[in-house]
Design goal:
alpha/beta, Rossmann fold, 8 helices, 25% strand, globular, binds adenosine-5'-triphosphate
Length: 255
Amino acid sequence: MKPVLEVRKLSKQYGEGETKVTALQEVDVALRPGEFVVIMGASGSGKSTFLHLLGGLESPTSGEMYIEGMQELNFFLEPHATHYRREKIGFVFQFFNLVSALTAEENVALPLLLAGHEKKDIQARTSEMLRLVGLYERRTHRPTEMSGGQQQRVALARALVHRPQVLLADEPTGNLDSQTSAEMLELLLKMRAELGQSIMLVTHDPMVATYGDRVLFFRDGKIVKEHYNRDDQSRRERAFALMDQLRDVTEVEVR
Ligand SMILES: Nc1ncnc2c1ncn2[C@@H]1O[C@H](COP(=O)(O)OP(=O)(O)OP(=O)(O)O)[C@@H](O)[C@H]1O
């Protein structure tokens, strides 16, 4: 099967001359349909930059992008970038980013409103998503009336309501306790089983990374290691295997 999303030689530099920072250096990644890929790496290794480029939030200095095997030549130019973001991508962030003046259902409905869907369709899809994340009963609550875990579930419903092919998640459990984190990750797996989208998730936490199919380790803007989580291992065993890999990556860094 063709990758849902593929990038080749993706590079990003910020600034010019003496202040030039190379955040990404010729990164190649192919995300398969339904695959859950985790990105790990030290602070400043380029993880968020990579996610922002994949999501069309920023444009690269150079590189190629393919969607379902077709090269997207105008991908990073407007209005294509906005169209692509609204159609193909869902985002979840560490700090939920919900609109505080809106209720849970209004927040979830927002992407459909922006895309110009009909009222009936918006209502049906929004209710379905709130049921899937287990918050239908709380649909009229505002973010301040919900726990962090509930807010992140609303954010997940909002990210997936337009049925994007790819969910991009930047430290989505970074602001949750470990129990709520585990619940959120189980929910991510459930949503993937229901809706079939691929997932690309950034985390510092090896326990979070055990939920992915594949883990990519970034260092200095490059992918330096790739690791597949094993189905025959417990979550704890997977976490230990990942910590070993992280140690390797860090040791290379020190040398
Ligand atoms: N807007 C920007 N302007 C200048 N430099 C930037 C900008 N955004 C990121 N950088 C630099 O690019 C590099 C990669 O940053 P990035 O945020 O992608 O790393 P990260 O791995 O996500 O880090 P963290 O884990 O701390 O979030 C860093 O050196 C950072 O300082």
